[in-house]
């Protein structure tokens, strides 16, 4: 590189620099020049030509450098910055992979130990069975089993003596026992762990998730990596109400320091009941925090019972005392920063105290894993991303503020479902039918909390909150699909008049009184405005704007939009044991951070089917087919349909309203009737989207038709054969690649049945659609078969299609002009062009008719 000549003759130095630049060589910049350029780069990494010329004029030490060289310097500087960021990213990924590799090796060692133990136990049992058979034929010898029983009677298992609550040594002994049992579950073979379906380990995955098999109670285990230091991780995990949505309260009653630098805490915790049909649970437990010799941090806990010893917990009416078996968190520091976490949750929720139909909610380790174990890991990863600045602000608010909104919505809905007396709730008498429960709360300030401003809310409206709630059992309805439909099609179940009344309670205005009704003839629409979502998009917060609502008061129409703050979660059909929930609360236009919220909504919790096979817990629609791949075709269609048809879930509905004292009866009657109408609407929707017995779940085909992969190949091949154009721009012709391309194609592609009569008079029904087609028709894969072709095409399109049908059957395809079609919800959809072609099978026999609607949009 050429040097900038410096000396006593500046003129010669500038001439030499000019000659160097003219000769095409680079300039070596002085430290002062580099410092000046760095200052500019920090403010503007990519300056314009005018900016570079201005820099040369205003900075004398750069006057001997050409603008072109300045431009090259900035290019090189941006390239170095990009390389630095990429190197840093690769180092981070490498650290994650190294830590994950270490985690997987440890998991592999644990599994090998478990296999060795099972082999040993299997051999031992074989020997016992052989000895037992010999002993039964020889009465002169004592049976090994009998001998074992006598030995057990002579040496009974020692019981824990009752330990004094004021004796720290006794509590420390319990804590050390808890620590040993927890470590044997987290890293040993004390529990037979079975990995959950769909939980694949990787540097960006949530972690390695497993559930218990054949143990007392239910248990779940997780191993994962987070980019937070161990002390920060411990602080977050101890704050259970911040991430465990079912935790109502957690009170630390006593803290006892231990000699090893740790501490023992006596904790009382209450949790919400998931439905109105069961009582809430509470726990009295010991939590032990300590460090290990290898630098790891351990937080372990267990319930204190008469069997374990220790002080008795506080009594709580209307709660069922559940038990935490040895559980906790093992937090190990990683090289280069971050932590490696092992989580074990092991509880006995006293399932026998609930109705038999609800016991799967308390006996399913998958539900426990989703609610507690995975939730803890997800929360840690969310905090880590927010700390690193990877999470953008939504609506101008910091992520922590938006997370608080989500917690308040979830907590408010749980409070409404449970209706605790110490929160001020009391039951109203029924109207003779016990399908809907009405509860009132005359202390809304206590209910909403001191951190919100309730003065505006109750300045003109009354002094109480009323909740109407109901629970019901659903058969053969995937929870995620139902909640997704309720979210996207609010008009199918909501009443705009009730929405108007709820919205009025959020406004301190003269007309915000009961009796406000929606203007007649109103037909509004909703607009979803996203605010935030979690790392894996399993939960998202959004604002719903209900457009065009008009309030009618004293024959004066006052048009005004309404707004809802909404939390939606659990809409991934592949998440096993996940609870699907849609919770919303009316807000005003200001949407302040301390806005009072009265959440209402729906919660759908799956009940594990009786069979334990993996196929019984997996929704085999097209989306899961894309993830599972061709291996899923090994399961028969009949078995898949049978398992999905046996799916059961519990739906809980709760709606909250404000009221004035003298109108309590009127509001209660309105709320009761409204919830009944919502229940009826949900039942109608559930019947519409539920799969039929004997039908394949997911892609709808007639009996004997091909699988989705085969259909994708036929659709693509037939389109290319008839039009001479490739439907997908891809080199690979693998079936799984074609299916993914078909599913994600931007245009709407649908297949409908082709009758043997080769005419359009038989009302063909749709048997398949990609994602764009489902969006256009506003339907689901399961409800697709109920839609006929003639229902969505207008008169003009039907006439054109009938006239072109002979051409399609003879020549293989036809181009249809632009037109209008109707979605299943009655909304008009325009498209620029439609292509219809005949899909043939391997024998070149007509199989179905395919349509592609190009550049469609809602009118």
TrEMBL record:
Domain Homeobox: 20-84
GO molecular function: DNA binding; DNA-binding transcription factor activity; lipid binding
Residue ranges for the DNA-binding region feature of this UniProt entry: 22-85
Keyword Glycoprotein applies: no
InterPro entries cross-referenced by the UniProt entry: HD, HD-Zip_III, Homeodomain-like_sf, MEKHLA, START-like_dom_sf, START_lipid-bd_dom
Keywords of this entry: Coiled coil, DNA-binding, Homeobox, Nucleus, Transcription, Transcription regulation
Subcellular location field: Nucleus
Keyword Cell inner membrane recorded: no
Domain START: 164-392
Ranges in a coiled coil: 94-121
One Pfam family per UniProt: MEKHLA
Superkingdom of this protein's organism: Eukaryota
General function of this protein: Probable transcription factor.
Entry protein name: Homeobox domain-containing protein
Organism of derivation: Musa balbisiana (Banana)
